[in-house]
Amino acid sequence: MYPRLVSTARRIAMTLFAGCAGAAFASPTLYGSLSNFDVYNDTGAETHGFEIELHGVSASDVSYTFGGDYNRYGSPRIDSFEGGIFVRYLSTYDAAKGMFLSATPVPVSFSPTDGHSCWSGGGAGYAGSGCEHFGLGLSKNASSTLYRWLTGDATTGQISPAGGNVLIAAPVWQVIDPAPADPGQPQAAPVVQAVIAPEAAEDRGQYGEAQWVKVYTTEIEREVELDELLSDNAVVPREQSETEIEWVLFQASPEDKNNGEGDELMLDKPLAADVGDRKSIIRRYEFYEYLGVYDPEDHEAQPLDEEDPVGAGEVGRYIGAQMAAANLMAAPVPEPATWLSMLGGLAVLGSLGLRRRR
User: Fold this and answer.
1) 177: burial class by Cβ within 10 Å (0-12, 13-18, 19+)?
2) What CA–CA distance (Å, rounded) separates 184 from 79?
3) pTM, rounded to two decimals
4) Which domain range does residue 248 map to?
5) Is there a domain that residue 336 lies in?
6) Count of structural domains within the chain
7) How far apart are CA 229 and CA 250, in angstroms?
8) Is 142 inside any structural domain?
9) Whole-angstrom distance between the N-terminal and C-terminal Cα of the chain?
10) How far is CA 21 from the centre of its chain?
């Protein structure tokens, strides 16, 4: 019986050490997401604030925000509602003078932002640029995100949404586990997936407003900070070699077409190596107007050339850019000493059982 016990212990040891080795390939944990974006005031009139509507998160999930001395509205206010929060950047109102003290003007141009026009640290051009930079960090994913400009009534001091939602999408991140490797084959790396969804039309029987989107991506071997996600920061991908998608048409489908699904832009980023301690996947999404024709029946975009929309004259003014990041942490791997302790315990139990049978 003793040889049988030794054989059993060996089999357990092999199983446990195999599990330990397999755990080294476990998918990392997504422990935070960041979203910093440049946006132009496209309402046609001066605005007095901006709001971010987030669903599926609470105020306690906001780890930090971009504000303070870095933009004209200062740090944002967080207001809760059932199922989510509003992050609101608001102008101060002077009741005695009946006026708002800060305002985003109408832009003179809508050229792609380079980081020097949308925040106070970028230079003297910020005041009249008509462009702002907002952002926040979350300790979890929001299930959906909406952006709106706000305008104030100088008579009452009340601020309300100006126009519709801003057409800059925010990604929802997740880590996808790899399929089990075939015997004798190396385990595939996990994939970090980012999904952005287009704005649906008010008439759900129609296609939504179309946009052109260009995407860049990179990764760094450390945690990225919110204040690094500025257009001209070295961590934000913008080089040709970092282009993930040159151009893609982005448009919501009608509700009765594939249940309104399948119109998301879903991008996968296989991790280049095992996550040592921290890693960040960073994407820059650039959004532009679509100038092509639409089907008069259902408002579906009919582009002439999706491969070269610039050459076809179908890319309009720049709407804004989303600088988004997913911060990853290596999944915990049990220490070999832990497995050895477990084996020692099993051996003791086996020995006691053997003595009882004797």
Assistant:
1) exposed
2) 54
3) 0.80
4) 29-178+188-329
5) no
6) 1
7) 23
8) yes
9) 10
10) 31
Question: What local confidence, expressed as pLDDT, does residue 10 receive?
Answer: 46
Taking the C-alpha atoms of residue 81 and residue 57, their distance in angstroms, rounded to an integer, is 10
Whether residue 350 lies inside any domain: the answer is no
Write out pLDDT tens, residues 309-341: 999 999 999 999 999 999 888 765 545 444 444
Residue 61 identity: D
User: Would residue 2 be called left, alpha or beta, if left means φ above 0 and alpha means ψ between -120 and 50 degrees?
Assistant: alpha
Task: Choose among 85, 32, 59: nearest CA to 325.
Answer: 32
CA atoms within 13 A on the CB side of 265: 24
Strand partners, 51: 88, 148
Q: Which amino acid is at 266?
A: M
Give the span between the Cα atoms of 254 and 153, in whole angstroms.
36
- The encoded tokens of residue 264 equal 């998301």
Give the contacts of 279 (CB within 8 A, at least 6 positions apart). 28, 219, 220, 221, 222, 271, 327, 328
Q: pLDDT tier at 278 (50, 70, 90 boundaries)?
A: confident
Please indicate, yes or no, if residue 183 is contained in any of the structural domains: no
Lowest mean pLDDT among 7-21, 276-290, 291-305: 7-21
